[in-house]
Structures are given as C-alpha cells and as structure tokens.
Amino acid sequence: MKKIAHHPDVSTLMTCAAGSQPEALCAVVASHLAVCPKCMSEVSRLEKIGVALFEKLDPEPVALDAPLAAVKTVAESASDQCEIHRPEGDVPAPLVALIGPWLDQIDWRPLGADVWHFPIALSKTAQGDLRLVKISPGLALPKYATKGEELALVLRGKCRDDLNTLGPGDFIDRDTSTHQVLRADDTLGCILLIATDAGLRFGEPQLPPAGRFS
Q: What is d(CA 95, CA 120) in angstroms, rounded to the nearest whole number?
C-alpha cells in the first residue's frame, strides 16, 4: 500500500477512542486505524491522556455500565485484529466479521450504471448508514441526500475530489454542504467505505466527463 496521505483529525480520533462516536462513523475510523500505524499511535497516545485524566476524578455511582468499561476501545480492537490475528484478505480487519475477508467475494448490488453497493448491517440500536460502494473507472460517486456527518475511506483503486487524489487507506471527511464530486480513477476505478450518522438516499450516477483522470 502506498503511503497514506489523508488522515482523521485529532478531534475525530479522540471521539472514536473515547467510544462516543456513532457506530457507523467509528467503523470507518477503525478501518483506517487498521492500515495506518501513524493514527494508531496517535490514538494510543490520546488514550493514555484520557486514562490519566480519569484517574484524577472522584468515583461516582452510575445507573448503567460506563461505555469505556463495557467495551474495548477502538484502538485495542483494531490492534488485536491487525497485529495478533491479522486475517487474509483485503477487507479491513474490523469489518471482516461482518462482510468477510475479500472485496471480490462480496455480493455487490447494482446502484446504477456501473456502480454497485453493499449495505453493512449495524447493531439494532445504532443509527446511521454504513456501506461499501464500488465505482467503475471514470464514473463519479452517485448523488445522494444525507443530513448527517459523513466519513469515507478508500479501500481499493483511486479517486479524486475537487482538491485531492486519494488512494487506498486515505480518509475522507466529506463536507456534505459543498456537494463536492468524488470521481473514480479512469483506469482503476475505486471501492469506498462510506458512513453517515443519518440515512443515505442515492440518486442516479453521473456520466464520466470528456477527458482523462489526472
């Protein structure tokens, strides 16, 4: 894998490490951590700071299990799967139990002309949307409607938005208010993991423009 150039910001990593990020969004961050030692190291650093701060607080009774005591942290989970039980395949380790280890063995469903998707089931209480989208060379990510925060991760191939060329492992914090077009490479196409903390409603895919990908 090429060097990853685009990463979550510190606030996104901190929110995910604290267990307060919506499940769908956290899946994208955890999948990035699974392939990015730089961000894994940063999350570990943030966790140590958090532990030090918690140790200074006086204990208080709670009615429910504290989230950090009830579940493993994202960094620990990703580290366990990636470094100790690294699976075969090209699916990020945190997703293997949900969709299997190989992207080519996924039961892709047509989303439009030469664009496919695969919705990933969330837990019963989770809100939002998590899915894979496979875009043929030269096509753009279909238009869709969402009111929530959106995160994405390139799993295979290349794509570009208005500013950047993005490859495997690159993290995308999309600003849904700007309606940026995300277009697949003319030769490689791309596969994306996309999550929002609200629903998604796709429209028709855009046709490729004249000219080549650059």
A: 9
